[in-house]
Specification:
The complex is a heterodimer of chains A (about 425) and B (about 150). With about 425 residues, chain A is an all-alpha fold. Chain A has 17 helices and 2 strands. Chain B starts with a helix and ends with a helix. With about 150 residues, chain B is α+β, with helices and mostly antiparallel strands. Chain B has a 7-stranded mixed sheet. Chain B is globular, with a radius of gyration of 16 Å. The chains are: A mainly alpha (about 425), B alpha+beta (about 150).
């Protein structure tokens, strides 16, 4: 007989989502660990990473070069230098190599940019107007959510209201409008508007730097799955947790290039980090909150259907009603359209078997995407637990009780009765495969 | 008596911390009259961080400096002084949560394994985990389900 120390166990949770609380305590994710879930989420990470490779490059271009242009008609026409820009986390030149692939734009992205869905090499403007392109509108919607829900922790939010930020911005805006009497006049007339455009440009850059990391993370996960090295949902989640820690300290900054000269708006020397000034605010603003449009329903603010406190907003992907209301201009649907072009063959095969086959592939992939984002959110919750609290196998019962309080608090965000939050959350739906 | 840096350099358990403090250029600050209260993570504490975390921080000095500054509090504060507070502001700016009872001395999620090491220019409390800033939404999330259950 071998004697082993029994692992300390807390009494069962009384939370409405107790089963999921216990799963998180055992090192699992909010998404159940099944091969079908794993295939869906990894397939969607791959399909997301290709357009994301465009998003981060164009976001940086807009933040660094389009800057405060109030008439930015061509901001989605990305210059070649940004497609050649080396990702700091992929390729031979990486600071920390996360993806074993190349540092420049992904080959599938470049191929799509050439031919589009039409598979015809037409002038880029025609592809653009036909929406046969990567739809930056989704990326901008995420940026706006972050700009609108600014106070999600971190030091960037107070910094953007500081005198130092205003000075930096003013210097860059003056250089930007220099020699252009109309723009100079506009800046004199509407200085606050330009300052707000500058904050928006900062947010473009922040989101670009955030996704610069997520794209190689998702590419690598897809490759590891294809090689048989990621075999379960918790393994996928833990890859994300480790990734979050590895690049937590990556600098978040904003600089602008005007006539060949760089101007710091948010200098690297402020010590702002990927985890605190980009990742946590992104998750809080985009996954949970965004803006009152869940897909199929209109809201009446006068009838108190919209929370008076912005912190209670709950219109993010975790609560989204994945129904095809998609006409042009509905950002999540545009994202689904973007991912549709880059689905791995095993997912296309899979979707053909269900519902109405290819007819509703956009909805099916949207729901797989929602599952994949529940996995990413699980990783963020576990990373938060590891950063702020205790290991899952901590021998101290008081520490385990703190972990439970944290998990129960996080999951309560999907159970709150106010404003129909409980009914909107899709956490119960993703527990089975019937939801597709 | 030795200063904070001398004590850390003289103890083999702090080699990672000493390397980090040197890389961040904080040696002169921590040798200055201060006084400072330093929560000093051991090598074992740093080793608990997942691979890559330190590499990224060492590549980015202002970010490393910020994390280190979160481990420093102005003033000379012994355990008995800290016991009066639930949290205390770090040099980084974010608060550090304190749990201090007769048999518990914890800062955030770290346990103080050796309190009240006296230096010329301050006090060192040795901790078993690198502490990281808790965002402002941490406690509202921790309290939300308990508050709802109580209602």
């Amino acid at each position: 007989m071998t004697a082993t120390l029994p692992r300390i166990k807390l009494p069962p949770s009384t939370h409405p989502l107790a089963e999921i609380v216990h799963r998180l305590e055992a090192g699992g994710a909010m998404l159940p660990d099944t091969p079908e879930n794993l295939m869906q989420i990894i397939g969607l990470y791959k399909a997301y990473a290709v357009p994301m490779d465009f998003y981060w490059r164009d976001l940086l271009y807009i933040g660094e070069q389009v800057f405060v242009d109030p008439f930015a008609f061509f901001k989605f026409i990305i210059p070649d230098e940004y497609l050649q820009l080396h990702n700091h986390y992929a390729g031979d030149t990486a600071d920390l190599r996360i993806w074993r692939g190349e540092a420049t734009a992904h080959p599938e992205l470049l191929e799509f940019m050439q031919q589009g869905e039409l598979k015809r090499k037409l002038p880029r403007i025609l592809h653009h107007l036909w929406h046969d392109r990567i739809n930056m509108e989704f990326a901008e919607e995420c940026m706006r959510a972050m700009l609108w829900h600014r106070d999600m922790g971190g030091l960037l939010d107070p910094y953007m209201d500081s005198e130092e930020y205003r000075r930096n911005a003013d210097r860059a805006i003056r250089a930007y409008v220099h020699g252009n009497p109309i723009m100079t006049g506009l800046y004199k007339l509407f200085p606050d508007m330009f300052m707000e455009l500058c904050r928006q440009a900062t947010m473009y850059a922040v989101l670009g730097l955030f996704w610069e990391i997520m794209a190689p993370v998702f590419f690598e996960m897809s490759d590891l799955y294809d090689e048989g090295k990621i075999t379960s949902v918790p393994e996928a989640m833990n890859f994300l947790v480790n990734g979050i820690f590895a690049i937590a300290g990556r600098p978040i900054y904003h600089r602008v290039r005007i006539r060949g000269e760089w101007y710091d708006i948010v200098p690297k020397s402020k010590g702002f980090t990927w985890l605190y000034e980009a990742a946590f605010p992104y998750v809080e603003a985009v996954f949970y909150r965004t803006s009152p449009f869940r897909g199929t329903k209109s809201y009446n603010a006068q009838a108190n259907e919209i929370p008076t406190n912005q912190l209670d907003y709950h219109y993010g992907v975790l609560y989204a009603d994945k129904f095809p209301v998609g006409t042009a201009g509905i950002p999540p649907t545009l994202l689904h359209q973007d991912m549709y072009h880059f689905l791995p063959p095993y997912l296309v095969e899979y979707y053909r078997k269900f519902c109405r086959g290819e007819e509703d592939m956009l909805i099916q992939l949207a729901i797989s995407f929602q599952r994949s984002m529940y996995c990413v959110t699980s990783a963020v919750i576990q990373a938060g637990r590891a950063a702020f609290l205790y290991p899952l196998d901590d021998p101290n019962p008081r520490h385990l009780a703190m972990n439970r309080r944290y998990f129960e608090g996080q999951l309560y965000r999907f159970c709150r009765p106010e404003y129909g939050i409980k009914d909107a959350a899709r956490i119960n739906a993703i527990q089975t495969q019937d939801y597709r | 008596m030795a200063d904070i840096v001398d004590i850390a350099v003289g103890n083999a358990a702090f080699s990672t911390l000493v390397t980090a403090v040197k890389a961040a250029g904080l040696v002169d600050t921590l040798k200055s009259p201060g006084p400072f209260t330093v929560f000093a993570p051991t090598d074992d504490a740093f080793a608990k961080l997942p691979a890559g975390t330190i590499t990224t921080l060492v590549q980015n000095i202002p970010q490393l400096t910020r994390i280190l500054c979160y481990h420093v509090v102005p003033g000379r504060l012994k355990r008995s002084d800290l016991a009066a507070f639930q949290s205390i502001n770090s040099v980084e700016g974010s608060p550090i949560d304190l749990t201090i009872t007769e048999d518990i001395f914890e800062v955030n999620n770290a346990t103080v394994i050796m309190p009240d090491v006296e230096a010329d220019n301050g006090i060192i409390h040795v901790i078993d985990t690198v502490i990281l800033m808790r965002p402002h939404w941490f406690w509202p999330i921790m309290n939300s389900f308990a508050a709802a259950s109580a209602r």
